[in-house]
Amino acid sequence: MDDRIICGKNAVTEALLSGRTIDTVYLQKGAGGMGKIIVLAKEQGAVIKETAPEKLNAMCGGLKHGGVAAETSPVSYSTVEDILETARQKGRPPFIIALDGIQDPHNLGAVIRTAEAAGADGVIIPKRRSASLNATVYKTSAGAADWIKTARVNSLAAALDELKKQNIWVYGAEADGTPFHQAKLDGGICLVIGSEGFGLSRLVREKCDQVLSIDMYGHVNSLNASVSAGILIYEAVKYRR
Length: 241
What we know:
There is one protein chain. By secondary structure, this protein is α/β, with parallel strands linked by helices. It has 2 domains: about 5-70, CATH 3.30.1330.30; about 80-235, SPOUT methyltransferase, trefoil knot domain (Alpha/beta knot, 3-Layer(aba) Sandwich). The protein is about 35% helix and about 25% strand. The chain is built from 9 helices and 10 strands. It has helices spanning about 10-15, 35-45, 55-60, 80-90, 105-115, 135-140, 155-165, 200-205, 225-235; strands at about 5, 20-30, 45-50, 70, 95-100, 120-125, 150-155, 170-180, 190-195, 210-215. The strands form 2 sheets. Strands 7-6-5-9-8-10 form a 6-stranded parallel β-sheet, with helices on both faces. Helix 5 links the parallel strand 5 (about 95-100) and strand 6 (about 120-125). Helix 1 (about 10-15) runs parallel beside helix 2 and helix 5 packs parallel to helix 9. The relative contact order is 0.15.
């Protein structure tokens, strides 16, 4: 599936509201409830095309689309400096989420959705061993990917070094870390979440100022990466009210 395709009412609506450049909006013939999308698309000057459900199914690669998809201009990533500037404009210490090798686009989309909802300034992902901002990510994030800056870097370890020079404390998430509720997640922080199967890479872990764990009380000894991220992100929110 083309990375420029966004599927689903919520994702397409948020993309249009955010001002992201939309080339074409595809509407399934006979689909109802598309009035808002049509108005927004016309305001942007996007081409609106009616199409058969078979074509939408093929465009969306099996994702549920609810009768609508959109084709965007090529993805434009932000930079780490763009994320830091966002924090400066808000007048508060940076709040950043970094993902170390999250390859499942559903997990990436879920983390982006939580990060945006929690008011984080941006998300950092590496260029290698990571999902990219594709249609699945936009769908899973429910459009949040259009509202929060995502930087794609050559080396996550090097990016963390640069953040530390800006007095940003780097916290990693691992099973053998300090219980997260014992940490005071105030000031400028970057939360680093490891990959689904392997956790933090060795070099990235070495860059962390502190490694945190999430208490487990049941028989299962691990959590989905996006769930872990959500717990830690909202723990940090407690200190940023």
